[in-house]
Specification:
Layout: E1 5-6, E2 12-13, H1 18-24, E3 45-46, E4 49-54, E5 57-62, E6 66-68, E7 71-74, E8 80-84, E9 87-94, H2 95-116, H3 122-135, H4 137-140, E10 146-154, E11 159-165, E12 171-174, E13 177-180, H5 184-194, H6 201-218, E14 234-239, E15 242-245, H7 248-262
Antiparallel strand pairs: 1-2, 3-6, 3-9, 4-5, 4-13, 5-14, 6-7, 8-9, 9-10, 10-11, 11-12, 14-15
Helix pairs in contact: 5-6, 6-7
Length: 263
């Protein structure tokens, strides 16, 4: 059984988060086990993810390709994940570590909700994710970098919001759109010319997919929609009613139209 933390005056309280439960039980993961140059390892890298606000919420989109150097490691990798019913997190960087970070983040949010009986605020969730990224800093110094993207619907403001991060855990709120990964620069360049804060859900989806196609045109590590193989981007939409993962049959016609328009 987990022992409570000792406070001043002999008062104790239960661990504040799931990671502290693991730490108290001696089960916390060790991030500094790798020594030397991690660049010599064959590791899959997740590439481009982005988020775009529209009038009623926010879209999060990720390509499906993971690379190992100049080779394709996976063509159907999932990079966009629900973190709870009203927020989502996407990953770029070292794929294995990034997926573990997402799982820990999901568990921490669920743990908090069970303890407190309420959902952590969107700002609080973004801050907590920043702390998890900062804890990965020893791995980043060895070349194993994880940089997420976070978005959600904020019921206090009635809007979709999105946050970008840097490798040391810096957290930055973006007004309209954001991205991370090797093709993020190209995606943001497209969005600067085509973003409209008044666009509806259909137009928002179209613009988000088109920006990913534009990134794939310039960045070799980013994959656009692959119609021949039936591989389409991961897409999550979040609005006042909650989070929805869009199925391929909804994404396919939008993706095919984006390929024709952008190329």
């Amino acid at each position: 059984m987990t022992q409570p933390r000792a406070l001043a005056g002999g008062i104790t309280e239960p661990p504040a988060g799931f990671a502290e439960v693991l730490l108290a039980a001696g089960l916390a993961p060790t991030w500094d086990v790798l020594l030397g140059d991690a660049s010599k390892l064959s590791l899959a890298d997740a590439t481009t993810v982005l988020a775009v606000r529209y009038a009623d919420g926010v879209y999060m989109v990720g390509d499906r390709q993971a690379t190992e150097g100049y080779s394709v490691a996976h063509r159907r990798m999932k990079k966009v994940f629900p973190s709870d019913d009203f927020s989502a997190v996407a990953i770029s960087g070292t794929a294995g570590l990034a997926i573990e970070l997402v799982r820990l983040f999901q568990t921490e949010l669920e743990h908090y909700e069970k303890l407190e009986g309420t959902r952590l605020s969107l700002e609080g969730r973004a801050n907590f994710l920043a702390r998890l990224v900062r804890q990965q800093l020893p791995m980043a110094f060895q070349g194993l970098v994880v940089v997420p993207l976070f978005c959600g619907f904020d019921h206090t403001t009635g809007t979709g919001r999105l946050f970008t991060f840097d490798v040391v855990g810096g957290r930055y709120e973006e007004d309209d759109f954001g991205g991370t990964g090797s093709g993020a620069k190209e995606a943001r360049s497209y969005l600067r010319s085509h973003f409209d804060p008044t666009m509806g859900a259909e137009e928002g989806l179209s613009v988000a997919i088109k920006s990913l196609v534009a990134a794939a045109e310039q960045d070799v590590a980013t994959s656009g929609p692959d119609v021949r193989r039936g591989i389409y981007p991961n897409v999550i939409r979040i609005d006042v009613d909650g989070l929805v993962e869009l199925p391929d049959d909804v994404i396919a016609p939008v993706a095919e139209a984006a390929l024709e328009t952008v190329r």
